[in-house]
Write the structure tokens for this entry.
Amino acid sequence: MEYLTKSEIAEIHDTSLKILDEVGMKWDNEEALKIFDNHGADVDFHEKIVKIPPDMVEKSIETTPSECTLYSRNKEYDIPMEDGEINFGPFGYANFVRDPETGKRREATAEDLRKLTKLVDTIDDWNFQYLQVTPQDVDPKINYLIAHAIQLKNSEKHLVAAGTSKRIVEDTVQIAKAISEDFDERPFLSFDHLTVPPLTEEKSTSAGLVEAAKRGLPVLVSEGVMAGSTSPVTLAGALAQSSAGALGALTLVQLINPGTPTLYGSFARIMDMKRGTVSMGGPEWILLKKAWSDLAEFYDLPNWYGCMLNDAKIVDAQAGYEKALSCLLASFSKKGLMVQCATIDQDRMCDFGNILVNKEISEAVLRIKRGFEVNENTLALNVIKDVGPGGSFMSTQHTLDNYKNIAWEPELSERGSYEDWEKKGEKTLYDKALTESLDRIESHQSPEIPEEKERKINEIIKEAKEDGEKL
């Protein structure tokens, strides 16, 4: 399913190259500036502006693997980034949660993150973890490091970590190595990196990008433009600028360590000019994501972006249609990592029940994406002849043999009679999702961490806290 034409893709690509070559990017990082300079880019060290020539960008795209595997501690959860493979998982960085007991908004805690990590661990088809919330009850200098430790201790799935500084990359790797001696052979970490729009790289986060690239760890690059605020309001212009920012970061990674797995991503969205807020559930968000997957296919790069984000403040009908539309279009990417949020309220608040609502939607969408076969068995002419006019197909061997492979069975959605629904307490889909989420958290056993490994992790966190550096 293509949204942009080939000529439109070529125009956007050409514009992105011109942005990087003629406008450039600001890199507030001396090491990054020197790397670009050593490879022949036009670097203004005083203004910290790097103008990247088109051939350097295109060579970097060529050295970026078109396919890769994101490893997990448990091999069952390895993620193949290859054609035809779409992988769903969580996202967020929310500062607030909707309390599952009171229904009121409050600040997110480390315990919330532990529970959310356990919940995602119960979803077999979601093969990676992401920071659903940023704990607000811990030392803010090291909250990301504490969050990474929580997730690494409570899940054997791949972790997409926050690459906010050189130190956070180093210490998160040390925690991962303390947990598993196999990390060097099977690194189960990647780091996400967000260019600050318009076209700016901050000192700390770019240092994290450099460190991850030196280690050859997978990185997820993107520029989260807001059309009308930090990029042109026109969607083509927003897309071209967002792609330029992502390609600029990708180029640095490949200059440092050619062949490093790099996922090409976007969080392009649009401003709501009437309210002064950003829209993360409207049709423009969805259009930008589908167009982005067309660009990723043009570059033959692994793709990643957020879907199922909401402007809605609770999990209601608005949240439902926003999720379904964005998830459906996202699924038609050729290959990629689809980070679907447990968040509502424009990515600010996490909701425990929301995660299983997202799971249900993503499963339905993947069933749509799978389509159906047309062959002698599925056309079933002989079965139609045997049953004949006025007959029933329910008891035929053909139905028994094929039903489970054809029909998707929801876990939460209501398909019974109205009377049955009344007898079960007239529960909404969200009611059932929240109850099931809390039950899963209560019953799920996280992987055991030996005492000596726990002690080593605590030492790494303690040293980081004592150094006083913001991670």
Notes: The first strand starts at residue 25 and ends at 27. The two ends are 41 Å apart (CA to CA).
